[in-house]
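INPUT
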Amino acid sequence: ETGVTQSPTHLIKTRGQQVTLRCSSQSGHNTVSWYQQALGQGPQFIFQYYREEENGRGNFPPRFSGLQFPNYSSELNVNALELDDSALYLCASRRGTSGRGGGYEQYFGPGTRLTVT
Amino acid sequence: AQSVTQPDIHITVSEGASLELRCNYSYGATPYLFWYVQSPGQGLQLLLKYFSGDTLVQGIKGFEAEFKRSQSSFNLRKPSVHWSDAAEYFCAVGGKKIKAAGNKLTFGGGTRVLVKP
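OUTPUT
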């Protein structure tokens, strides 16, 4: 148990719809990252939020957007869903501190399985 | 650009036998290296990490990994495999940034380990 929770566990949507996934960070963690893991592949970095601001983005289109709230919980929003968006979406939190190795461990939640039909 | 290669997609090993999973990385600076394990339908659990210092690092569940800068490798080993070690294993690379916040992880494609009785 990492203390990172995600909801919902599973979700089925239709192509063209919009979806919101939620993540609750581990206590004391102010940085959250989102990853997409397609079937049979490693996770791919979507973006990261630190103190409510986007702080790094991977190679994903603008229809993937996010929010981080003052309590450091986070949302991932995907608009205009496509079939290829079907994947496990993982949220990871960490302490955004400097120093030798400090805060670079990311703790992952169990993920949300999104199926787009 | 940073990248990770896990050359073995599947490995089958007998229970009690030793296991070695290969990981090669590309990173333009001093890398931070991680091994994660993922059981079916689950999120990622951190096995071990390397930031600096001793190049042989010990992790949980009896795993260890050795960082070899000259070979750009970070191979994972376990002397005696248990049936519960059957899972998918991911190697990941990240790096230190000047800003306190933010550092994405780049994952390899994963190695699926099957354990024979």
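end of record. Chain A touches chain B through 35 residues (CB under 8 Å).
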